[in-house]
Amino acid sequence: LEALTPRRPIVVARELTKLHETIYRGTPREVTNALTRDTIKGEFVVVIRKK
């Protein structure tokens, strides 16, 4: 996503409706940086803002 739309906002949600639900918001680079800092296990949903 970063190569195709580097400034388009995205949301990555992890473990929705569960105790350890986490939501990451930002540009693809910001979200990637946040995900590399945290443990990335579980189910994910990715939302990409339209043009």
Describe this structure in words.
With 51 residues, the chain is an alpha+beta fold. It has one domain. It contains one helix and three strands, in the order ββαβ. It has a three-stranded antiparallel sheet with strand order 2-1-3, covered by helices on one side. The two termini are 14 Å apart.
List keywords for this structure.
alpha+beta, 51 residues, globular, single chain, 3-stranded antiparallel sheet, 3 strands, 20% helix
- Radius of gyration over all CA atoms, rounded: 11 Å
Distance between the termini: 14 Å
Low-pLDDT ranges: none
Count all strands and give the number. 3
Q: List the strand order in the largest sheet.
A: 2-1-3
Q: Approximately how much beta-strand content do the residues carry?
A: 25-35%
In the residues, how many domains can be counted?
A: 1
Q: Compute the average pLDDT.
A: 92
Helix and strand element order: EEHE
* Main sheet: strands, sense, barrel: 3 strands, antiparallel
Say what oligomer this is: single chain
Q: Assign a percent range to the helix content.
A: 10-25%
Shape: globular
Tally of individual helices: 1
Q: Briefly note the structural class of the backbone.
A: alpha+beta
